[in-house]
Amino acid sequence: MVAIRDCGLMLEPQQGMSVKEVVEWGVYAERNGYGYIFRSDHLMPIHGRLEQDSAECWVTLGAIAASTNRIKFGPMVSPIGFRNPVLLAQMACNLHSYSKGRLLLGVGAGWYKDEYLEKGYEFPALPVRQEQLMEALEIIRPLIDGKRVDFTGKYYSAHTTCYPFSKSRVQLILGGRSSLVRLAGSRHADEFNLFNGSTDDFKQLKQQLGESGRQIVISRAGPFFLARTKSQLQRSIKTKQTVATALGIPSSIDELMKHNVLCGDVDQFSTQLRELRKAGVDRFYFDLFDPKDKKMVDLLTQLLKD
Predict the structure, then answer these.
(1) pTM for the whole thing?
(2) Around Cβ 229, how many Cβ atoms within 10 Å?
């Protein structure tokens, strides 16, 4: 089975979600033995009332750092288009040092066009965003390793170091399915994450990353549906149908499972976790796209503790 210390909770930018609410989930996760708590770094909600923003990701990470003692935390992931890579590395090093080595830094190319345009950022085509990410990694990786960087690229340049730097190394997380990002992961990442990956996806990923000769943690993130019985599960899914539709998630048990969403009663759910573990998943991050459903999270916590 999966140990709860190898699992984490992940919070999306829910409508009107306050710093206090985010911190409460961080404290809940630490108190119950989870190893990780993550925030999805978006500047506006990805469904529902888009005008009702949630608390900014990095502000809430600082609050989590100040309110907890053991649990590791970070963004899953920070789009490189929001912050200059030197600034992002500086923020990561500062918070890592303050929290005594508990920050994990997830970075990505970004995908949510509406938030870029609404908040005043340019949203270039995917090939450009990927090029920007590749350049950013050439800056971020040495800086969070405590080294000086001297780099001049097409989009970014840096000739600096970061201070303060923690005695422990900042862990870098990348994720995605493109061959370019996986190549970058084999070179730069300490952890590689897949969203809603299947057992076959993870077997393939483990083989690809294994060819690099580096030790890279493999993690899985995604929403989940869990109940004690099948009938309770279907009722729970039905109550979340509006949110699920907005996220492009099916609203039936069979369709959810076809789309590799973790879904089932306690026995089915445990079997799914075991199969993914055998396929190469080292860590599981459970996306609380409905953080008001604390009963389902409590059931997940109980399952992982048993």
Answers:
(1) 0.94
(2) 10
Q: Which of 292, 239, 236 is nearest to 264 (CA)?
A: 236
- CB count in 10 Å sphere of residue 212: 14
- pLDDT tens digits, residue range 226-256? 999 988 988 888 877 766 666 667 777 888 8
Closest CA to 68 of 106, 29, 107: 29
pLDDT band at 167 (very low <50, low <70, confident <90, very high): confident
211 falls in which pLDDT band (50, 70, 90)?
Answer: confident
- Report the alpha-carbon distance of residue 53 to residue 201 in Å, rounded: 34
59-96 pLDDT, tens digit each: 999 999 999 999 999 999 999 999 999 999 999 999 99
Q: Quick one: pLDDT at residue 155?
A: 97
Q: What phi and psi, each to the nearest 5 degrees, are found at residue 173?
A: -115, 130
Superfamily of domain 4-305, CATH level 4: Luciferase-like domain (3.20.20.30)
Domain boundaries, the chain: 4-305
